[in-house]
Each structure stands twice: as C-alpha cells, then as structure tokens.
Amino acid sequence: MSTASRDTATGPASVPADERSGRQGPSRRLSLPPGARPYLPALVLYGVTKLVGLGVFACLLEYAGDYRHKDPRFGGGAHWWDILSTWDGWWYLQVAGNGYHPGPLKPLAHGGVFTVEQNSVAFFPLYPGLIRGVSEVTGLGLSGAGILVSVVASFVAAAGIYAVISALAGARAGTIAAGLWAVAPGAGVEWAVYSESLYVALAAWTCYCVIRRRWVAAGLLAFAAGLERPTSAALIGAVGLAALVTVARRDSRREHGVAGPVYAMIAAPLGLLTYLVWVGLSMGSLTAYFTLERGGWAHHFDWGVYTLDVLRNVAVGRNGYLFAFSTPDLLAVQLVIALPFLVALMLRKRPPSVLVAYTLASILTVLGTQQMFGNTSRYLLPVFPLLLAPAAAMSRLRWPGLAVFFTTAAVASGWYAHYVIFELGIP
C-alpha cells in the first residue's frame, strides 16, 4: 500500500462525523456511580410501591372526608396531605420551629391516666433539628421540610435494608426486602412527619457497618441514633454486644483489633445518655424523661402486662382496656401472633449476632411497654431483620409473580398501613 493510500485510510474517514462537520459530539450521558448501581432496583421498587400506597391512602381520605372536620393538630387539615403532619408530627414541628422549653414537671389537677402536663422534650432532637435545617436551606415550610426529610431518609433506609439483606441472602432478596418494607404494616409513617424512616436508616446502616467490621462508622451511627429516639437502646446494646464478642474472641481480636470495637462500645450510647441527662438536668430530676413519658403519654415498661391485657380482651371481643381502637388493635394482634414464626424463620438463617440482638431487644421493648397497642405495627417497623427469611423465600419467585404480589400489597397498604393508622386510630 502506498503512503498516500495509508494517509487516506487513517485520515478523514477515521475522524468522527461530528468532528468532520465542525460540530461537537454529544456530552457523556449521566450515569450512576458504579457503587450505587446495585441499589437502583431496590430503590425503584420501594419508591413505586410507596407511591401506589400513598395514592390509595389519598383516595380513601377524600372518599371519607372525615379529616376536614378534625382539629388540624389531631388528624385534620385543609388538604389530605396535612394529615401527614398531625399527631406526633405536630410535636416535631413545634420543636423544629420553637425549640425546647423544659422546666419542672407540671402535675395535672384532675389526675387520671395522664398525671403530668405533656412537654416537647419527650421528642428527641435529631429529626426536628434536620427539619429546621432543611427548611432554612430550601425555603420550604416546616411541614414540607419534615416530609422531605422523611422521604429522603426512607430511601436511605431502603438502601440500608438492601445492603444488609443482600449481604446475607443475595441481591435479589435484598431488593425484595426493600419492597416488603414499603408495604409492611405501619409503613404509612415512612413518608409522614414521623421519625421512623430516619431511625431505620441509622439502624440499618449501623448493623451493616458492624457486619462489615467498620467499627468507627458503626459507633458514630449508633451515637446519632441515640439522639433520634429512646428505643435506640436496643440498637446500642446490639452494637455493644457485637463489639464485646469481637474483643473476647482471640481470632477476631487478632483480625480486627481492639481499638475499633472498644471505640464503638464507648461512642454508641453517648448520644442517648447525653440527651436523657440534659432533660433530667433541665427539668430538675434525672428520671424526668421517664416520668414525663409515663405521666404525660401513659407509656412505660411493664414487662408485657398491658400487651397481655389487650390480647385477652381482643380475643373475647371486649375493649375494656386503655387506648382501645378496634381495627388497628385487631391488625396488631395478628402481627403479634406472627412474630414467633417470623423470629424462628430469621434464626434459621443464622444471621450475625448484631441482627439477632437488635431484633429480639426491639421486640421485647415494644411488647413489654404500655403504649397504644394499635401502633404496634409502627413500633415494629424498625425491626427490618424479620424481612430476611420472607425475602429469601420470595427471591425464588419469578418477576411476574412478584409483580402481582407487590401490586396487590401496594394497593392494600394504602388501607392497612396508612388509613388504619392515621384515621382509625392515633399514630
């Protein structure tokens, strides 16, 4: 081949057409970072399923119309979405907008079930603090900022659930677990001004960090969870137990060292302890938080006496117990009956000790506490390890069958996971 022919072969014909015509080529397509791509199916399934459930909830609210006649603080509002900022949401917005106003506990003159005046210090600071920060940065009102924080946190939580379950049972099971969390009983608060989504995000990623032996991150996340809600004690205890086991075993101590686990044990409880001590000092008694919970909200640990009382009454069709709401209570009874089966299935999968300890401690806390029994589904929403066995079993199904299941569950969740909690009970 001559030089001229070689030049022709490697010349204009080899130059991209856009360059020969004087035009720039198209910019590179936006794409997810490689590390984020495995999470995409789980997040899409979670998001679509939640949107369907929320849409059904909105339709039911508009059909009933009862919310228009209720107090905006107690399940009412001008629009259906206002419901998402009522009840506990109202308290979080008060903290976000006005801060705390602690002081000595104020006894109520009439006594009865509630013996002291309610105070916003019963609601932990991390979630309302984020609401305030997001509102100031974005210009959204506090209610819109609260919902935004919950929605974003719910996707972080779904990603954390995927990360934990996929590490134990495969990516397909992790994706299904994220979808199951979207339709779990009580899931209606995930996109409301409630702290569940943020707490589950912290709990799931804390457990993942412990499983991966990332002790510094686990300690910091557990610390943050302690500023989120008092039930973080279950998570903090699980982290401490896993760290202690790691230090106690010679092989794991050699492999992972001592400094990381010890750091996690020390850092994990500091957030919870700091807030409880601050409340105690501000209100004149180190046990003020627990006194407020018991006297202001009638919530206290009673070793399951209240739960047993509800189970007996519901079984014989009576409602002679505290905080009786027939429909939410009946669904909660069914969930409690299913718990031993779900726990047994989870244990058969031999999950890491941090998941076992976190699950059992969380269940003990919920069933051993006097509180609104109809909200058991919401209180158990953070116990995501129970999804391990169902997700692993369902991962054997083909996608057409899974599509039918999640479509049906998403539609039904608009009633049992949303409407029942917000309109037929007190969330």
Automatic annotation (TrEMBL):
The chain crosses the membrane at residues 39-64, 140-165, 200-225, 260-281, 330-347, 354-373, 402-422. It is a multi-pass membrane protein. Pathway: Glycolipid biosynthesis; glycosylphosphatidylinositol-anchor biosynthesis. GO terms for biological process: GPI anchor biosynthetic process. GO terms for cellular component: membrane. Residues 1-33 are annotated as: Disordered. It is found in: Endoplasmic reticulum membrane. Keywords: Endoplasmic reticulum, Glycosyltransferase, GPI-anchor biosynthesis, Membrane, Transferase, Transmembrane, Transmembrane helix. One of its GO terms (molecular function) is GPI mannosyltransferase activity. The keyword Membrane applies. This is Uncharacterized protein.
